[in-house]
Specification:
Order of helices and strands of chain A: HHHHHHHHHHHHHHHHHHHHHHHH
Strand content of chain A: under 5%
Largest sheet of chain B: 2 strands, antiparallel
Shape of chain B: globular
CATH architecture of chain B: Up-down Bundle
Distance between the termini of chain A: 127 Å
Oligomer: heterodimer
CATH class of chain B: Mainly Alpha
Structural class of chain B: mainly alpha
CATH superfamily of chain B: Cytochrome Bc1 Complex, Chain C
């Protein structure tokens, strides 16, 4: 039994005054008239929890310790305080129930514009199945991803569920080899994601439109997409590519579950972009060498490699035009048009319509060749400037020779 | 064939027989030297006197360097006037007008590139001329005033180039000038006000362009005109410096016409031909239009002093530029201290060492400046600086560093402790 001594009381008073100020962090600093809540006893012993709690949104909304943990917050003595339905450490399963008591209640959440589907989603997720159905406490509960006391909105860069922090939050468990071994899961997802186009966009370009783990797996309903769902998951963002894929010959196999959708060519977490010159080799992993499909792959590869090279040359030609002083506004606009066609090529190659693909590469290539021709014409014109040197040096040498003769003559005559 | 050879031989004989009188026959034939003008003004006599002026025997090809500088200056004035016909000094129109000059205007490319190349060659020629004058000890009394005027003319040349450098208003010009003005602002006392006056704004902008254009085409040409007039007047007043070795002083000199004029003609024709050839073979590339919001990935320097300055600023900080300028000023003021009449270089070890240090420093800084291919990191825009101040991850995907006072936040759970299996064996 711990009793508060007078010194302890003094410390409590100090702690309360700062704590009550922190209950309203938005105004407490500026408002000298804020009421000091001297009746709240939890913080006498749990000052560390208070510090963690007051920076979060729950503190801003007036939620207090007893709203989740029960007990008698008006008491200063441990035994008296830990009564009346006190819940100390609620445990993982009960945590879900505590959080859901508000977050699954539309009447409470409506005012904050927060959805109430988290519990329903959690029940469908692998995490929820393990925790709620099997009672596997190694599975995460709400507070493992959101923290128990520091509840920050996702837009806050410090939040564990801020887009940039989500991969790290998931990785805390999914990079743990010992834990994942129990479920037969790999642990290299985060490392692959960091190198992927999505990871580079998120971490290096700060592009928050790039998907994190939850973009493909869902957050509360986290579950790996089924084989038949992969094309739909990727197509959610890559809509045009997804539509092209659905119209192509591979779509039926994907729908039947014989082909892992996009993952047949691109990996899941690494999301490798296939280099154009390796397209045919990629197709050869499934299609026999002399099959019509392999021939089609060769043709697609040739078209894409050719137009890629033509666009690269056009880019160099454009820079050359700039350096020669040629106004390039129109030319640059045409180059952008060619790039647009090229991006359409990247979509159309997924439906393997060679005619459509050739049409786009022909258009892009035609513009690229035009730009190169303009640059070559300009280069020739600039080279022709050198012809001007023929008369210049003819007259120069003639003048110098005549003057030299005259000088030599003067010297010979001793003048 | 024989007729052609006869024709060439006749031209040669005519030239061999030509005298100053035959030269004067041209204006006389055109009616310029006779009539009321010549009656009132003795032009004929003055010209005759000038042409018969005898130069000392030791005056040789080495003495043509000053003439080359003057010739290149004339070339710069002529091409500059032609450029000014089409150039428009505003941030919106400067770059397109330069594009138009080099692509649309007849021989605009030639005029512009001759202007660019002459601007570089004139600095080299002027330094060579000064080196010759310095080595011969020509700056000794009574010609010290003319040395100082020459030094002022050199500074004027540098000012011409520096003010003209930003006029194309492309990325390279913009960011080079921005970096050099930034370096100037670092220098004590004179630096900040000078940089402020030259920039005219908080960054290099349209105000800077207007100021540089006004200086380049109005202020500096007038200064150059008066200083050149003074330079030539003092040259005529004191005459060509006598030879160092006394035995050469007794040799008979050569008349200005036709001997020295022919030599000058040969040098001038060759200098113009070389400038035009350099302009045609190595035209100055045009960068992208100036953009104060985007630091370019690369810089291309196109003027010798800019390369020297960039080399000094980048490798020795702005203080290197200040020290080198101080060395130049010390050399310029040398005549005030070096009053000893001894002229051979071996008898002037301090002056020789200073001159050699300047030339070697110039060459070294030039070579160093040629290696500068990227803008200084100091030139990064403010947004990038802010970006650098925000917490950055040490590697992609690593946790964000703490912001704010860390004790107020709960300690981040250690990876082992944070894992869910609480109470799980």
């Amino acid at each position: 039994m711990r009793w508060c001594t007078p010194v302890g009381m003094a410390m409590v008073t100090c702690g309360l005054s700062s704590a009550s100020a922190a209950w309203r962090p938005a105004t407490a600093g500026q408002d000298p008239g804020v009421q000091v809540d001297t009746s709240y006893g939890c913080i006498v012993c749990h000052a560390d929890k208070r510090r963690a709690f007051v920076v979060g949104v729950h503190a801003e909304r007036g939620i207090r310790c007893h709203d989740c943990h029960g007990g008698t917050p008006t008491a200063y003595e441990t035994r008296a305080a830990h009564t009346r339905g006190f819940i100390g450490d609620p445990g993982k399963v009960r945590t879900v129930a505590i959080c859901s008591s508000c977050h699954a209640d539309p009447n409470r959440m409506r005012q904050y514009g927060v959805s109430t589907g988290q519990l329903a989603e959690l029940r469908t997720s692998r995490h929820g199945q393990l925790l709620l159905q099997r009672g596997d406490t190694a599975a995460p509960t709400c507070t493992d991803c959101h923290d128990a006391h520091t509840i920050l909105p996702p837009v806050d860069a410090r939040s564990s569920v801020n887009p940039v922090n989500i991969p790290g939050t998931c990785g805390r468990c999914h990079e743990d080899q010992r834990l994942m071994a129990r479920y037969g899961l790999p642990t290299n997802q985060l490392a692959e994601f960091r190198r992927s186009a999505h990871g580079v966009a998120l971490f290096e370009n700060r592009d928050f439109a790039a998907p994190t783990c939850v973009g493909c797996h869902g957050s509360h309903g986290a579950l790996p997409p089924r084989v038949t769902e992969i094309a739909n998951v990727c197509g959610h963002c890559h809509a045009l590519v997804g539509r092209a894929f659905a119209a192509g010959p591979h779509a039926a196999s994907a729908r039947a579950g014989r082909l892992p959708g996009c993952l047949a060519c691109h990996s899941n977490h690494g999301t490798e972009r296939v280099p154009p010159e390796q397209l045919a080799a990629l197709c050869a992993r499934c299609h026999e060498q002399n099959s019509p499909a392999a021939a089609l792959a060769q043709q697609v590869q040739q078209e894409i490699v050719r137009v890629t090279e033509e666009l690269r040359v056009a880019e160099v030609a454009l820079e050359e035009l700039v350096r020669s002083g040629e106004p390039v506004v129109d030319t640059r606009f045409r180059y952008q048009t060619a790039l647009t066609y090229f991006r359409q090529v990247a979509q159309v190659q997924h439906n393997l319509d060679l005619e459509q693909l050739s049409d786009l590469t022909r258009r892009a290539g035609s513009i690229a060749r035009d730009i190169r021709a303009v640059a070559e014409a300009r280069r020739e014109r600039r080279w022709e400037h050198r012809l001007f040197l023929i008369p210049v040096w003819f007259f120069t040498l003639a003048a110098v020779t005549i003057a030299g003769f005259k000088l030599a003559d003067l010297r010979r005559r001793g003048e | 064939m024989r007729r052609v050879l006869n024709w060439i031989r006749r031209i040669r004989d005519d030239l061999a027989a030509s005298t100053d009188a035959s030269l004067l026959a041209v204006p006389r034939f055109l009616g310029l030297l006779y009539g009321p003008i010549d009656h009132r003004l003795p032009i004929n006599e003055a010209l005759r006197k000038a042409l018969r002026y005898r130069l000392p025997a030791h005056v040789t090809w080495r003495h043509a360097l000053g003439g080359i500088v003057y010739l290149l200056f004339i070339l710069l004035v002529v091409t500059g006037v032609l450029l000014a016909v089409y150039y428009r000094p505003s941030t919106q129109e400067a770059y397109p007008s330069v594009q138009r000059i080099v692509t649309d205007v007849s021989f605009g490319w030639l005029v512009r590139d001759v202007h660019v190349w002459a601007a570089s060659l004139i600095v080299v020629a002027a330094l060579a001329h000064m080196a010759r004058v310095f080595a011969d000890g020509v700056y000794k009394p009574p010609r010290e005033t003319n040395w100082l005027v020459g030094v002022l003319l050199l500074f004027l040349l540098l000012a011409f180039g520096a003010t003209g450098y930003v006029l194309p208003w492309d990325q390279w010009a913009y960011w080079t000038i921005a970096e050099l003005l930034d370096a100037v602002a670092v220098l004590p006392v004179i630096g900040p006000p000078l940089a402020r006056v030259l920039t005219g704004d908080v960054i290099v902008s349209g105000a800077t362009l207007s100021r540089h254009f006004a200086l380049h085409v109005i202020v500096l040409p007038w200064l150059a005109f008066w200083l050149l007039a003074l330079h030539f007047a003092l040259l005529r007043k004191h005459g060509v410096t006598p030879p160092i070795t006394p035995s050469d002083r007794d040799k008979p000199g050569l008349p200005f016409f036709p001997h020295h004029l022919l030599r000058s003609f040969i040098v001038a024709v060759l200098a113009v031909a070389i400038t035009v050839s350099a302009a045609a073979v190595f035209p100055r590339p045009v960068g992208h239009a100036a953009n104060p919001y985007a630091v370019p990935d690369s810089l291309v320097s196109t003027w010798v002093p800019v390369e020297v300055s960039l080399g000094l600023v980048r490798y020795l900080t702005p203080w290197g530029l200040a020290a080198f300028t101080a060395l130049g000023v010390a050399l310029a003021l040398l005549p005030l201290f070096d009053r000893d009449p001894a002229r051979p270089l071996r008898q002037r070890p301090v002056a020789a060492a200073l001159g050699l240090a300047f030339l070697l420093g110039f060459a070294g800084a030039w070579v160093a400046g040629r290696t500068v291919r990227t803008p200084s990191t100091r030139m990064r825009p403010a947004s990038d600086v802010l970006e650098q101040r925000t917490p950055r991850r040490t590697e992609p995907g690593a946790p964000l560093p703490e912001v704010g006072p860390t004790p107020e936040r709960p300690a981040a759970p250690a990876p082992e402790a944070a894992r869910p299996p609480r109470g799980v064996p």
